[in-house]
């Protein structure tokens, strides 16, 4: 039994039957949940507007607005908490419909106490993990910028999103192609369904077919289980084919077929499956050149490029740079508890002169490093020099390839130590004193990162 004061989670019960509400409340409160109730769909919406719970138990059959409508209304308003539906016995059709609309779980009456408790626990744990990840990845969900280039991009997104048309997003690395793909899904009528992302460059060629289209059990060595492909998983929703320029000829042929006929053929399956999927693709590659070289199919290009969207390079909208810096400073302050810092005018002016080959991603990484490494609350041009000059510029380039926070920490630690050692003429004793660490520790770190004078 839960101890008093435990926060197991907050649950909203929506049911027009008082006896059901009462018994659910008793079960949940006994386990340490905080419980709120609503007697109808419209009062549930009002409750959620005052503060969203971490899970909703929602009755399907209610007068006025039924449970499925309430579920859709939540999603339309952007509430993403898990919803667990309650229905009458044997109502398989509704169960399928609810799952398709994004319900987390489904219970039949009469309710079984243990099933409900396990379902709620899973729902809240998953939800908490998801929101933590979202925060930890610092992924902004909106495109920032007020320049004509960004306004134009937004206008194109707004026009394309409501249609079922295939969109091809092109632009340099780090310009927000993934943000565009997500925005298109979010602004489309499919927003309540899944958004399935496939990074075509990251999946080995021999696996990509079964990743995209699925496979039958035993269809090839190692296929010990049946696998659902991403196209089927995206049914009713959007599939995002990222780095689409990196697909092999064979995969291109299969994707083309999926787009032409709206059906996919799992590896080793006798029959193909009809799918209803909206396709958004992205690449930083020059597809026209690849077509000329014979490495990308022209017919696939035209299928994908129904609505072309181009994300501008940062150097084409430098007027947005101050807003972006501000945005990332605040964002890191919120998500990582970094102390917010300000930038001097000359620091901003200097940033505008950098080449920005890594575009907004590079700017974002630089802001993070400055928040960690710059010694004062106000960041000057010199602080930026210290991080971007000479040999260290290469390190800044390679930062773009880092994946985990740990890699980033190690990288920035190495960078910092290099900088400090240089500053103190490679005098280890002085450097150690200045950065307030034992000399033995500094030696250990230099060893760990293979830092020697040549690196400077
Ligand atoms: N206009 C923008 N506003 C806010 N953040 C942005 C913007 N453009 C890019 N970013 C951020 O920069 C990073 C890179 O963006 P994204 O992953 O969408 O780039 P990409 O174009 O897909 O790059 P790649 O070709 O390398 O995959 C992300 O953290 C993203 O949130
Ligand atoms: Mg990308």
Please explain how this structure is put together.
By secondary structure, the chain is an alpha/beta fold. It folds into 3 domains: 10-136, Rossmann fold (3-Layer(aba) Sandwich), CATH 3.40.50; 148-312, 3-Layer(aba) Sandwich (Rossmann fold), CATH 3.40.50.300; 315-455, Orthogonal Bundle (Helicase, Ruva Protein, domain 3). 48% of the residues lie in helices and 13% in strands. The chain has helices at residues 18-30, 41-50, 67-76, 92-100, 113-136, 148-160, 177-186, 205-213, 230-233, 249-261, 287-293, 298-304, 321-336, 345-351, 359-373, 381-388, 390-399, 405-423, 428-434, 439-448; strands at residues 10-14, 34-38, 55-59, 83-87, 105-108, 167-170, 195-199, 214-215, 227-228, 238-242, 263-264, 273-274, 278-283, 307-310, 342-343, 378-379. It has a 5-stranded parallel β-sheet, with helices on both faces. Strands 7-10-13-6-14 form a 5-stranded parallel β-sheet. Helix 14 runs parallel beside helix 16. The chain is globular, with a radius of gyration of 26 Å. Residues 1-5 and 390-394 have low confidence and may be disordered. It binds adenosine-5'-triphosphate and magnesium ion. Adenosine-5'-triphosphate binds at residues 139-140, 143-145, 171, 173-179, 284, 311, 360-361, 364. Adenosine-5'-triphosphate (ATP) binds next to helix 7 and helix 15.
């Amino acid at each position: 039994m839960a101890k008093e004061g435990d926060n197991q989670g907050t649950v909203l019960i929506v049911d027009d039957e008082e006896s059901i509400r009462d018994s659910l409340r008793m079960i949940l409160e006994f386990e340490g949940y905080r419980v709120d109730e609503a007697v109808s769909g419209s009062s549930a919406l009002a409750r959620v507007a005052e503060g969203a719970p971490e899970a909703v138990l929602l009755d399907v059959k209610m007068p006025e607005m039924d449970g499925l409508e309430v579920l859709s209304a939540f999603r339309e308003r952007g509430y993403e908490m898990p919803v667990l539906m309650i229905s009458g016995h044997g109502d398989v059709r509704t169960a399928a419909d609810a799952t398709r609309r994004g319900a987390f779980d489904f219970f039949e009456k009469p309710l079984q106490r243990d099933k409900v408790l396990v379902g709620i626990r899973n729902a809240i744990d998953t939800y908490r993990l998801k929101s933590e990840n979202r925060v930890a990845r610092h992924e902004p969900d909106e495109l920032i910028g007020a320049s004509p280039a960004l306004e134009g991009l937004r206008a194109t997104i707004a026009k394309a999103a409501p249609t079922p048309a295939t969109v091809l997003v092109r632009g340099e690395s780090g310009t927000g192609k993934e943000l565009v793909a997500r925005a298109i899904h979010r602004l489309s009528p499919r927003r309540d369904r899944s958004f399935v992302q496939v990074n075509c460059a990251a999946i080995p060629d021999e696996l990509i077919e079964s990743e995209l289209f699925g496979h039958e059990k035993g269809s090839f060595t190692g296929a010990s289980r049946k696998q659902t492909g991403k196209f089927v998983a995206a049914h009713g929703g959007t599939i995002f084919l990222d780095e689409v320029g990196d697909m092999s000829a064979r995969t291109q042929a299969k994707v083309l077929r999926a787009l032409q006929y709206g059906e996919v053929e799992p590896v080793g399956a006798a029959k193909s499956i009809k799918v209803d999927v909206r396709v958004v693709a992205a690449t930083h590659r020059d597809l026209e050149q690849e077509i000329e070289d014979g490495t990308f199919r022209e017919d696939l290009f035209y299928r994908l490029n129904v609505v072309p969207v181009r994300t501008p390079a940062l150097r084409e909208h430098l007027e947005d740079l101050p807003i972006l810096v501000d945005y990332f400073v605040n964002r890191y302050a919120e998500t990582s508890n970094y102390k917010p810092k300000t930038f001097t005018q000359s620091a901003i002016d200097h940033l505008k002169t950098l080449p920005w080959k890594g575009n907004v991603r590079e700017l974002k990484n630089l802001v993070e490093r400055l928040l960690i490494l710059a010694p004062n609350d106000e960041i000057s041009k010199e602080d930026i020099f210290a991080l971007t000059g000479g040999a260290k510029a290469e390190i800044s380039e390679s930062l773009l390839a880092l994946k985990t926070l740990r890699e980033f920490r190690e990288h920035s630690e190495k960078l910092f130590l290099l900088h400090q050692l240089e500053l103190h003429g490679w005098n280890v004793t002085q450097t150690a004193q200045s950065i307030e660490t034992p000399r033995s520790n500094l030696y250990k770190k230099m060893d760990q990162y293979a830092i020697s004078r040549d690196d400077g």
